[in-house]
Structures are given as C-alpha cells and as structure tokens.
Amino acid sequence: MSAAGALALPRLGFGAAQLGNLYRVTTDEEADGAVRAAWDAGIRSFDTAPHYGLGTSERRLGQRLAPYPREEYLLSTKVGRLLRPGPGTGDDTANGFAVPDHHVREWAFSESGVRRSHEQSLERLGLDRVDILFAHDPEEGPEDQAIAEGLPALARMRDEGLVRAVGVGSKDARVLTRAVRTGLIDLVMLSGRYTLLEQEASRELREECEARGVGIIAVSVFNSGLLAQHEVPEDAPYEYGRAPQAMLERARELAALAERHGITLPDLAVQYPLRHPAVRSVALGMRTAAQVRSNLERMAAPVPEAAWAEIERLEREARAAGSSA
C-alpha cells in the first residue's frame, strides 16, 4: 500500500484558501464558525498553503484546530514559496488575497527551500506536524528544479517520518503527470481539470495515477464558480474570468439534466470526481458555517444512477464529436 493509501482520506475535505481572505476579507467570526461547523459535522481533513493570504490561512487554521486532538484529523500544506518580509505598504489583491503585503513570495524548490518552507508552515500553524506536503504550482516557477530537487526532497522527508505523504498540487495536468511518473509521490491535488465541464485535459493524468496507485484530491470542482449555482447566470465566472458562451450553454444543459433527476447542478459538481477510481477526495472551499452545511448537503444528495449514465452518454458523444472534427 502507498503512503497515501494508509491515510484514509475522507470524501470531503476542508479547503482553507478563504481563511486567507481569498477575494474578500473573511472575519474571525466567520472563520471560527466554519472550522467549528466542519469539525462538528465530522470533517477531518484540512488543506492550506503559505500562498493563501501570505500565511494568513495557515495561522488562522492552526489557531482554530489547536483545541482538537491532533491525531484525529489530517492536515496538508504546501511548499515551493518561501515567505520573506515585505514592504507592508500595499496589499496582495493582485494575487487574489485581501491582505497587506507584509510578506513577499520567493520560489524555493531546492531541498533547503522545501525544508525551510515546511518549518515556516509549522511555525505559522503553531502545530508540531502536518500529514501531507504538496509542491505547489511548480509550473509557475522553476518547474525543472521542482521535479529534480523538490520532489526527491519531499520523498526523503516522508521517509524520515516528518510527513506521512507527499504530492504536487496544480491546475496543470501536464506537470502533475510528469511528477507522477517520477515514482516519488503519493498524491496529486488537481485543480479544475476533472469536473463536470472538463475531463480531457486530465485523461492521461488519471490513467497514470490509477496505474501507479497515486491518489487524486480534486479541487476547484465548480470551475471557479460556473457550476456553483443551479441557475447559471449570464455573468457566471470561469477560470477567474467571464465564462464563454459555449461553457454557459454546457453548464445549463447539465443543470437541466440535474433537474430532470430531482437534484441540482452543484450536487453533481461536488460528487462527479469521486466516480473515478483514482479520486480519493474532494476538497471544497469553506468560508462560513453556512458554506460548510451547504457543501455537506451537496455531498450527501442522492444522485440517481440514471443521472450518471446520462452524463456518461453525453461525454461519449462529446469525445466522438471531438475525434471526428
């Protein structure tokens, strides 16, 4: 059994990017309520990163997990970006976070950089260990160094018992496939490339993961918000911009399918990735207690097999049309 196989990842995990003030300020009261509601509902897997609000997410999450027994939950964070003191005169909204620029990010995929990033994260979290470390967005930085130096460093840290499993997190299926083929990692965190709307970009990756026993944690399953509402608005977001008309039409077609089967589009979006044998978990962003409850309801919604069969038929038709084009 791989290291990931021994972790017993739950179907639903808590994504803590919003605790880092993603897009807007999350109040302390909202953060308190979200983590408490998640814990009370039985969620026992939490994911964060230094990138999320320049360490704000790690600090907030660690403070709120501190009262709970450490052996009762899984915690993951990420390496590859060291945080250095910054000017503190502006903000980080260019990177999507409503926080002051009290730190700046510095790429660090060398062994010393990976280990220092891990140490910094433990300091911010205020905890003695994390269970999983992901190399974060290597394609946006020195990718070759991340593969040649960062992944072996992570594997050594796992073998030393510093963490229980290691992986790579990215929206780029190509770099994730490259990482899987090194044979060094246990998990990938795949962002927005295996969803109701997008499958082809990750086909090779999913095949490789299944063959090698590497688990997939699916994130950004709403494709930046396009699948987050049953009634798809004309200005729905997609890939952090406005959704193109073809995507809007596809989302509305899927919403109509869901309605025919007595469920909603977000219900399908949350559960869809778990249909693949390599997908071990879905991590969803949770800013408030209400979002936690909503995500739990979506995960628990009874989706008829007939709905999945209809989706599979539409996918086959789309692949056939694509191959004949």
TrEMBL record:
<dbReference type="GO" id="GO:0005829">
    <property type="term" value="C:cytosol"/>
</dbReference>
<dbReference type="InterPro" id="IPR020471">
    <property type="entry name" value="AKR"/>
</dbReference>
<dbReference type="InterPro" id="IPR036812">
    <property type="entry name" value="NAD(P)_OxRdtase_dom_sf"/>
</dbReference>
<protein>
    <submittedName>
        <fullName>Aldo/keto reductase</fullName>
    </submittedName>
</protein>
<feature type="domain" description="NADP-dependent oxidoreductase">
    <location>
        <begin position="11"/>
        <end position="314"/>
    </location>
</feature>
<dbReference type="Pfam" id="PF00248">
    <property type="entry name" value="Aldo_ket_red"/>
</dbReference>
<dbReference type="InterPro" id="IPR023210">
    <property type="entry name" value="NADP_OxRdtase_dom"/>
</dbReference>
<dbReference type="GO" id="GO:0016491">
    <property type="term" value="F:oxidoreductase activity"/>
</dbReference>
